[in-house]
Specification:
With 331 residues, this protein is mainly alpha-helical. It has 16 helices and two strands. Helices cover 64% and strands 3% of the residues. Helix 10 runs antiparallel to helix 16. Keywords: Membrane, Transmembrane, Transmembrane helix.
């Protein structure tokens, strides 16, 4: 390791490769930059007599203390004074190569290079960036494969396809109304109590199950049948007979194909309008179907359904808007 090693270390790797080619350095192509610097430094020192007169390596050799011209000039001047004894020999001027680094700096650079070689630092920031990019792509590829293998995206697309229709919207609204109604008209009966577990600070919990004996009483069937009649059955009948979508699909012809029948069995617009009229007439004007249902049954349904009759009317408005939007998209 010479004092000219910092000069080689400052060069880029393509420049070092060019120097290695010029000096016929063997097996340099697979070397990293630090290894190439050390190999080239040793090669140039071992072959100094062959390359020191080459201008390409002048910057390298003039950084070596042994290449300083002081010794040569001193020997010439001593020889000249020896041939002329009558003259007073001139005091040789002290010359010092301006680019020769002080020994302390050279030793410090050598120690730094030794530390760099010991910890195997990357030759350039570009290599670090490439390594990070490769690792990031590998992690992203693994996450994508895990996501595909889980099947979540496939199931999500299936659920979206099933919910992206008017039939799904009406079904969700009906199920919500029925769930809230059944929660109110079917009471919970106490069954037992779980024992407490002090070790995990778990208190005793009472267990209650739906009391199905209520199905034998009128307190269940009166509000449930009223809701079924006003919110589902009669609107479906109206949607079947006042079927504008079927008329548009068949042109009013009595004979219909199987595809036309399946596509236009119930008109969603007629269903929403009929449901809105029935809900307003029963739960606002208290129409009791010729005294078949009591005021108590009307009140139970009106309190059980989310938002009361206003919530049901909001659902019918959603149905009307959805029907018109679907008709616009079909055009």
């Amino acid at each position: 390791m010479s004092t000219a090693l910092p000069f080689l270390n400052k060069l880029r790797k393509p420049e070092l490769v060019e120097l290695a080619q010029r000096t016929d350095l063997k097996s340099y192509r697979d070397l990293t930059k630090p290894d190439l610097v050390l190999a080239l430094d040793k090669h140039l020192l071992d072959n100094q007599s062959a390359f020191e007169n080459d201008k390409t390596f002048a910057e390298y050799y003039k950084r070596l203390p042994s290449s300083s011209p002081v010794k040569n000039e001193s020997s010439v001047e001593v020889a000249s004074t020896a041939r002329t004894p009558g003259r007073k020999p001139k005091q040789p001027k002290e010359t010092r190569h301006p680019a020769a680094p002080p020994p302390r700096t050279a030793s410090r650079s050598s120690r730094v290079q030794a530390v760099v070689d010991a910890v195997h630092l990357p030759p350039s920031p570009a290599v670090v960036t490439d390594a990070i990019d490769r690792q990031t792509r590998r992690v992203r590829r693994g996450l994508d494969q895990a996501w595909i293998a889980s099947g979540v995206q496939e199931h999500t697309d299936s659920v979206r396809a099933n919910l992206s229709s008017l039939k799904a919207v009406f079904t969700v609204i009906i199920l919500l109304e029925a769930a809230f109604l059944l929660r109110d008209i079917i009471p919970l009966a106490y069954v037992t109590t779980t024992p407490a577990v002090p070790a995990v600070h778990l208190p005793s919990l009472p267990i209650k199950l739906p009391d199905l004996f209520v199905l034998l009483t009128a307190s269940f069937w009166a509000p449930f049948s009223l809701w079924t009649l006003t919110n589902l059955a009669l609107p479906l009948v109206a949607a079947y007979f006042f079927n504008l979508s079927w008329h548009a699909a068949t042109g009013g012809q009595v004979r219909r194909t199987r595809s036309t029948t399946s596509q236009a069995s119930f008109d969603p617009l007629a269903f929403s309008i009929a449901k809105a009229v029935l809900v307003y007439k029963v739960y606002v004007d208290h129409f009791r179907f010729f005294d078949v249902f009591s005021y108590e049954a009307i009140a139970v349904v009106n309190e059980a359904v989310p938002g009361g009759y206003s919530g049901v009317l909001a659902g019918t408005a959603i149905g009307v808007i959805g029907t018109l939007y679907e008709a616009i998209l079909r055009r």
